[in-house]
Every structure is written in C-alpha cells, then in structure tokens.
Amino acid sequence: MKILHTADWHLGKRLDRFSRLEEQVLVMSEIVEIADEQNVDLVLIAGDLFDTFNPGVEAVELFYKTLKRLSLNGKRPVIAISGNHDSPNFIDAPDPLARECGIILIGHPKATVHPFELEHFKISKSAEGFIELEIKNYPFPIRILHTPYANEVRLKEYLGENKESELNKVLAESWKKSADEFCDENGVNLLMTHLYMNKKGEQLLEEPDGEKPIKIGNADLVFSEIIPTQIQYTALGHLHSFQNIGTHEKPVIYSSSPLCYSFSEAGQTKYVSVIDIKPNQKVSFDKIALQNGKKLVRKIFDSIENTIEWLNENPNTLVELTLESETFLTADERKRLYQSHNGIVHLIPKIKNQEMSENNLSEINLNQDIQALFKDYFKSKNGGQEANEDLINLFNEIVSEK
Q1: SS3 label, residue 150
Q2: Are strands 295-301 and 284-289 parallel, antiparallel or unpaired?
Q3: What CA dihedral angle connects 364, 367, 369 and 374, to 10 degrees?
Q4: Burial level of 204, CB count in 10 A (0-12/13-18/19+)?
Q5: Lower CB density within 10 Å: C or N end of the chain?
Q6: pLDDT tens digit string along 318-333?
Q7: Which pLDDT score, from 0 to 100, does residue 370 have?
Q8: pTM for the complete prediction?
Q9: CB burial string 117-131: b at 16+ within 10 A, e below
C-alpha cells in the first residue's frame, strides 16, 4: 500500500505584502500529480491547511478543489486534520458533504468520525481519535490514530481537566488505549497529529519565523517516546522542514511545508513523503522534492551596481536584501533597486561602521550655522556617517518652512 503524507499548506499565506496564492495553485497541482504518478491509495494532510482562522475565498476554493482532485472523486480516501493556524469548526463544517467525495475532515481532538461506505472504501470502525479504513482490493485494514492541534481550552475539554497531568502523559495514555484496543499486527497502524514533537533529550527543533508557536498549558513539547509501539509510521505537521525524528524502522516524519514561507526557510527543498507499508513489516518511504514556488533568497551586497546586476539575473525570486554602504541610500538608489526587481520583500540598509575619535564625537562647534550643526549632530548619532544629499535637502526644506 502507498500513502502520501503532506502538511502545512498554509493556503492564503502572504509574505509581507506578497501573496503566495499563484505559487500555491501550482504546488497543489504538483502534489496531485505526484499522488497520481505514484498511484497512492491514501492521502494524509497533517494540519495547518490554511494560514488563518478565516481564510479568503480564493484559498478556500483552492483547498476544496485540491482535495477533490486528490480524492479522485471519491475513489481515494483523503484525511485532513486541523493545525494551530486552523479553525477546527471551519475545518469540520463541510465534512458531511466532503465524505461523499471520499474526504474526511477532522477539526477537533478526540473526534469520532461517523462510519460511512463508498464504492472503493469504507470506515469500518470508529472511536474517539481513531478510525479504521478498508480499501477495496486490500485484504488488510488501515488504522489511524488522529490528534489535531489542541490549545489549552480544547485540551481540557477533550482530554480532561486534571491540571497536574502533563500533555505527554495525557496523550500517551490516550494513544496507548486506542492502539491496544484496535491496532494489532493484522493491519497497517498509523498516527497522524499536528503537534510540536521531538526526541527526549535532543536539541529543540526550530519553529519557522512567523509561525505561531505551539504552547499548550505548561507543556509545549511532545516526546516521540510516547508513540505506541504498534504504530508503524507517524505523520506530523507544524515544522516546515523535512525531518525524521523517529527511526528507519518506525519513521516519525515532518513532511515539510510545500513552499518556503519565511526567510528562515530560504534555500530549503520542500517535499512530500510517499510511504510503502504493509502490516507488521518495516516501513519504507521516499521524500519527493517539490519543484514549484519562488526561491526565497537572503543576499548581502556593498555595491548598488552589483546588487542591480544580481537582481536582473534572478527575476523569479523573493529577496531579503541587505545593502552595506558608507552612507545612507538615496531616494534615487532605492528607486533603481525596486525598478530592477519586483520581488524585493525587505530592503535593509546597513551603514558600515567607521572609527571616530573622542574629539569627533564630543567637540561640536555651536557657533556654526544650523545646517552645519545638523550635519555634525547627524554624524555624532550615526557612527560617524555623513548625512547624504537627500537628507540635507529635506532638512533645508523643513527649516525654510519655519
């Protein structure tokens, strides 16, 4: 059996003033094409389906169209859970209609999915936080423990009010109970969750810039050691780089986001995970690189001309640009930069430090005219840098208006 695992779509995401929707349309189509080319039997989407609780119309339309294509109009089951960017009620709302298309949407932890049957598969068992699928032409079932993101309020509502219980203990007990009851060696056993998970004792994994940090009460980290022994593969969401925090025999995989969504992700390759799995056997998986989406690039230059040359040679990028210079950028220089490239997200001027003597910093001739005083003041406050012509002209305009 083949399963495709993806996560952290963040549909509707923006990078500063730049919409990423056109790129998302392309990469969603690419994921559908991979699912078809690999002939996968099941698709798992592990949370952060949207970027906000109230996504825009275009993002919602892209989401539903993508799920419909992934499901092959009901022939292939698609299971999506909510993440910390998603509204669980919004995710749950279309579920009755979605099920008719083979799509299972799970917004809340400990949810019970109503059993149903379509021509090519059915939900044969269902309990809180658990479903069992039977897919046509496979002699074994697929068991899935599912835990969407839970904030502190939802955690208390669905997993108990015992304030002394740490999240790890509560989840370990819940998952073990379901695994012991439903997950024997005669089926494929999976865990799907959107949590901040890591190996105990390992260095903390970095959350991407701009990502809402996961905090659940006093516990903000779930340890992979609490995953039940019956589970063969764990499909994670939340962190945006591909990584296996489990073992080769029992992978625990962050599949990555489909696009680079912040400059902390600049240079990353994005993937989906395609799993080959059978009951009671070692899992194998391939990470398949995604090709669509603009590159995010951080560049540092010390010359306007070199900057413009690079920008002209790299048009299909989103850039965080740091420009080091002896003096501040002029309005004309800024205009030239922005005219040479339409993907400059951040332009960061950086003045090179210059050594100044104590006399230069402390001795200012107060008998000078006001323009000379301004130049000296500016120089003393900006590491010895001279005010450029634009600043002098602006200062003179302000003085003349008085």
Answers
A1: coil
A2: unpaired
A3: 20
A4: exposed
A5: C
A6: 999 998 887 777 888 8
A7: 81
A8: 0.83
A9: ebebbbbeebeebbb
